[in-house]
Amino acid sequence: MPVEKRRELLLESAFRVIARRGVDGATTRAISAEAGVTLSTFHYVFESRDDLLAALVTRGTDTELAVIATALGTAAAGAERGPGGIRIMLQESLSGYIDGVVADPEREQAMISLNQYARQTSGLAELGANMYQRYYDAIADGLEVAADQAGVGWDRPTAELAPLVVAATDGITLAYLNTRDRTICDRIAEATVTLLLGHVGDHH
Fold first, then answer.
1. Which residues span the domain enclosing 88?
2. How many domains does the chain have?
3. Which of 1, 88, 152, 162 is the most exposed place for a label (fewest CB within 10 A)?
4. Which residue in 65, 60, 61 sits closest to 15, CA to CA?
5. 66-98 confidence digits (pLDDT tens)
6. What is the DSSP letter of 53?
7. What is d(CA 113, CA 7) in angstroms, rounded to the nearest whole number?
8. Is residue 151 within 8 Å of 78, Cβ to Cβ?
9. What's this model's pTM, rounded to 2 decimal places?
10. For 143-181, how does the pLDDT look when each residue is reduced to its tens digit (9 = 90+)?
11. Are 75 and 135 found together in one domain?
12. CB distance 194 to 164 below 8 Å
């Protein structure tokens, strides 16, 4: 099996182990067993457990950003102009994010565990901060795109609005993981859209 395929197998296996047992339970032995490979294979692909965990944070962040980008792109296609258009894009984007959480809650649980572990671990603390900065930057860019598509503006820089959206997606994720109730997630999304619409400025 090519090294890249082994890497993918180990990363996906690690996500599943962390979702079930937490980061502390994700030993190299447990991850290797989940992947059906030997410990020597693990250490051939990754220098250390922390090396794998760092790769997981990057992979998980990439995946979540792709979900957001896809949802926004789908919502923007053929969107109407004006405040009504921006409302639809925001609603459909957050709905798309919820779809992603519902489809793969184990990955979301693993990402939360990884972020907490990274924040508390010497040498990995920057990973958590970098993960959130990437979320903020991506959301800020997405809000710019949505405004341009709808022909409206924001009353403040999108960099100031992005953390509000990330706070909402964090809340949606935690709500679903704890309740498995999509209705609650939809209510959080609806309130977030209402909040953001209050920051829509003049038309371009």
1. 50-203
2. 2
3. 1
4. 60
5. 877 777 777 777 668 888 989 988 998 899 899
6. H
7. 21
8. no
9. 0.85
10. 998 898 889 999 999 999 999 999 999 999 999 999 999
11. yes
12. no
